[in-house]
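We close this part of the discussion by returning to an individual protein. Part of our work consisted of pairing the sequence of a single chain with a tokenised description of its backbone. No coordinates are needed to read the tokens, only the vocabulary itself. The amino acid sequence and the backbone structure tokens for this protein are reproduced below:
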Amino acid sequence: MFNKVTSMHLAGALAFGAAVAASPAGAQTLHMWGPEKIADPAVAEMWEKIADGFEATHPGVTIEYIAPTGTISNGAVQAAIQSDAGPDVVLTNSGIGRMTTVVNSKLVQPLTADYEAGWKDQVYPWLYEQLKQPFDGEIYEVPDGLDALAIWYHKDMFAEHGWEFPDSYDGFLELLQKIQDAGVQPIVAAPNNTGSAGHIFGNVLQVTAGSDVMGDVVSGEIPWTDDRVVAGLQAFADLVDKGYIQPEMAALNFDAGTRLFLSKRAAIFVGGPWFIGIAAGADYPVENLGYVSMPSNLEGESIPTGGIGWSYMIPTTSKQPDLAREWISYLLSDEVMKMRAEDPTSSAIYPRELKGVEPATPVMKDIFDAAAKGVGYNPSVYVPGSTIDTYYQVIQGLIGGQVSVEDGAAQIEAQMQQAK
């Protein structure tokens, strides 16, 4: 099962290079960094099937997956690309901050011509427009998985109490009060981890200010001190003031936050489709998970936040860039996407709408439907890397009552200005 899976530790690149040198003469071996969970036997089995399908139509070609040792964020991808035995294709977590790192370092190839030749028809129109924005129309990534951060809730708990999600943020606040009156903690926030700090915060900002405003905010065209954005920070602070988010949660990490929700001591958790795997790993019955976008008073703004979660990139050091493009085209095909979407290991949102898909986990249908309407901006993956620590600190400070709304907005804006 694992003949196509190799490992590439940063200190062990020479060993990987020896494996490449041992390939039969005339053979083509395409090395792909990722996917992240390739060490999971069930995930590896699915990707083996994908590789087998490509190899069947490309005689002499072998696909080998490189088990990731990290991401762009910790420098592992950059080191792998610059090694003598670097990958031909990279699949790693993306987002504008991470993409800026590898684009500015000239580590990945532009793919704009490939989009014009057909790839743009393989992604949502709104996604294609987003891809063109950060680098003056040049595109360097092919989205594999989108993130869609929205509300997770317990179906049985809501049914038992007769709670229903309204179509406005005002109604959402009334729902939170009902949950609190029933003796249940309304919302979990876990800001003591950078990965989870911005989930609920970004949702509240979006439903308050709107996705267009937040798109301009994270790109630096609108300051964080804008009245509409400050109103979003105030809405988040109000959740704390009313007890819907407990101030003590300022010290809560992601693992503790998920336990609080999965043990049903809290009614709502904000996260992406990846949360399904976390719940399943904790033996929570995933069929009891409900997923819904946070309600908004603004028309059309009840959509998930998120952005591009995972992307393919072709390194500038790729030894087989043309074959890499053929491989990506194959991965974008209906055949492969549908197979992945229906696989029990899948919890990804794919870059375009898929017809006639029956996901193994039923709630994924709700997630697919939500993504088809568009995904807004999770600032955590859009603000510049030099701003992100301050952004997280402000969220934690708002929950713990250690920073005012105005000061928090000013702190983030100051870092945004320094990043220009």
In short: The domain at 147-306+375-419 is CATH 3.40.190.10 (D-Maltodextrin-Binding Protein; domain 2). Confidence is low (pLDDT under 50) at residues 7-26.
